[in-house]
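Appendix B, example 12.
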Amino acid sequence: MKTFKQIVLAAALCVGFGAGAAQAPVVQDGIQVKPLPSYRVLASEEKLERESQLQYAQLMSKAQEKHALAPDNNPQLIRLRAIAKRIIPYTARWNPDAVKWQWQVNLLGSKQVNAFCMPGGRIAFFSGIIDTLNLTDDEIAAIMGHEISHALREHGRAREVKNTGTQILARLGGAAAAAYFGFDPRLTDSLAQKAGQVVALKFSRDDEREADLIGLDLASRAGFDPRAGVALWQKMAALNKRQPLTFLSTHPSGANRIELINEHMNALLPVYARARSTNVAQLPPYRTTALPN
């Protein structure tokens, strides 16, 4: 039976959803997205920040215990941090609060084909996504931009509100450890039930499409080729035929994503060309890398 507090929150959500729906779309350089939802204020920013910081620290600590946390001199981690350093300066255009975030980038040794960005700019890649897809820097930038966009557009925060008190972030540390580093799931009790969701949170398909476009906008501004987004999803589709990826089960199909990206390429390529101090006509073809055998 719902408590009085839950009933009040649910009523507030209805008002918030209506207000959010009435807001005009945001359009920047041909990219149209939903405005940051007005009902997001129902989820405490300070609370989410504290939980994000705590759970990310716990996850990194568990990874270090398992010798799965890459050291600062790891070449792939250096590569990830260099890419992030180029992308981060452009994040505030999609969420002004990003200028206050304490950005972190880490690499976890795991065969999981995955990556995530928690609220506050806490990024983690699994080595499996880099190695299994043989990613170029442009393709890493497309993934990183996508994950950062989920945090920038507060998709997780909005989902917390929608779920009326479900503590998604509070589950991250224990469940991620159980799912990816071999701990006994019974040690985390109910957390283990969410193990399949903790790293690839089940955002809506609209959230995923929005993150695709904003992510490529960020990557383009940082001088990474947005055509990498097409190559990335072609690789994902090819890999998925070999071994179905849980990561893709909550996402729009690769064909739909490629179609969406191509529909916006006339907006993305000029941004990328400007970042490279050239024009679209002079851009060389995009060159990807083959999937490992």
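The radius of gyration is 19 Å. Residues 4-202 form one domain.
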